[in-house]
Design a protein that fits this description.
Blueprint (H helix, E strand, L loop, with lengths): L4 E7 L4 E8 L4 E13 L2 E6 L12 E7 L2 E5 L5 E5 L11 E2 L3 E7 L2 E2 L6 E2 L4 E7 L2 E7 L10 E2 L7 E4 L4 E4 L5 E5 L5 E6 L8 E8 L4 E7 L5 E7 L4 E7 L4 E7 L2 E6 L6 E5 L4 E7 L8 E9 L2 E8 L7 E6 L2
Parallel strand pairs: 8-26
Antiparallel strand pairs: 1-2, 2-3, 3-4, 4-5, 5-6, 6-7, 9-29, 10-12, 11-12, 12-13, 13-14, 15-16, 16-17, 17-18, 19-20, 20-21, 21-22, 23-24, 24-25, 25-26, 27-28, 28-29
Length: about 325
């Protein structure tokens, strides 16, 4: 895969296995099922379940050689990797599977593309279209009850962070974060070009209790970055290179939790000091092939994840709770 490499291949006797990829700069993992079959003449067929544009980069026929406890795999493009046989995958090389508890299912709201999921300490909120109106939808995580949606005359519902008073949303320009109150009044804004002097195409945001964090692509070179911003002084506190697309973010404890766009293992825990992924997670039963991962909110020891079914066309939202 572009920008990634095989880390582990697990072969099981029934003709299937699990391939783990690693993005070397951030240490983010992607775990994918595959089927395999020997073809003879030291050739093996390996078909990895890839649902993104990455499918064009993966060969299906590999030449292999086994020497003692090492396996060499090569494809027709000249790429080759050597694997060492182990009794079990090494620590840090597996995607951790999380058991999900459904908080709310079949919510009659079409989550807006680009919305996240935020907590105000009581309810979870996400942006959606309901009966042709742009709204913020509240859901009580304790009982799954859906509150009365707040109609937003501004049309801004791509909510990503809550600072205790304001919902922070992405402005239509893409480079401005705006803070709205419950009445949909724009109270504050941060223009990455004018205020920060560092123009960023914002993809997602998170609040850490004091500062607002912005993830996106720098206008100067299209590199993916994380910006730590003081919203009171409107100053750039820190800038970090982080070369994966973070679709949604939420601070929980000392870790930044994120959803990685188009990843088969979409939830990652990031250590901001090292700018590396500590762990990669997936939720069985909610594959990104069948569900769009829209947002997540860290509350205490739990994560709440906003999902939308890709295949049914129902345009309904689901929120699940997981405990890493």
């Amino acid at each position: 895969l572009p920008g990634a490499e095989f880390l582990v291949l697990e072969f099981f006797e029934q003709g299937y296995g699990i391939a783990t990829f690693r993005e070397p700069e951030t240490n983010a993992l992607g775990c994918l099922d595959f089927i395999y079959s020997p073809l003879g003449d030291n050739t093996v067929f390996i078909d990895v379940e890839v649902f993104t544009e990455g499918v064009q980069y993966l060969a299906k026929s590999y030449v292999y050689d086994i020497r003692g406890d090492t396996l060499g795999l090569g494809d027709t493009s000249g790429r080759r990797q050597i694997f060492t046989k182990m009794a079990a995958p090494p620590e840090g090389s597996e995607c951790i599977r999380l058991e999900a508890t459904v908080v709310a299912e079949g919510v009659e709201a079409d989550p807006r593309f680009g919305t996240g999921l935020v907590s105000d300490g009581t309810d979870l909120w996400f942006g959606a279209n309901v009966f042709s109106e742009e709204v913020l939808v509240p859901v009580n995580p304790l009982d799954g009850m859906v509150g009365t949606p707040l109609v937003r005359s501004s049309g801004r519902v791509n909510v990503h962070a809550y600072d205790g008073a304001l919902f922070w949303l992405r402005h239509i320009s893409g480079i401005i974060a705006v803070g709205h109150d419950l009445a949909d009044v724009e109270v504050d804004s941060i223009d990455t070009e004018i205020d920060l002097g560092h123009e960023l195409e914002i993809r997602s945001m998170a609040w850490d209790g004091a500062h607002l964090w912005l993830a996106g692509e720098a206008a100067s070179d299209d590199n993916r970055e994380l910006l730590e911003v003081d919203p009171v002084l409107k100053t750039l506190v820190n800038r970090y290179d982080f070369d994966i697309d973070l679709e949604a973010m939420s601070w929980g404890g000392d870790s930044l939790w994120s959803i990685v766009d188009e990843s088969p293992s979409p939830i990652v825990e990031i250590d901001i000091d090292t700018q590396e992924v500590i762990e990669t997670y997936e939720i069985p039963g909610y594959s990104p092939i069948s569900h769009a991962y829209q947002g997540l909110a860290a509350v205490g020891d739990d994560l709440y994840v906003l999902l939308e079914e890709r295949l049914s066309g129902s345009r309904h939202a689901t929120i699940v709770q997981v405990t890493p």
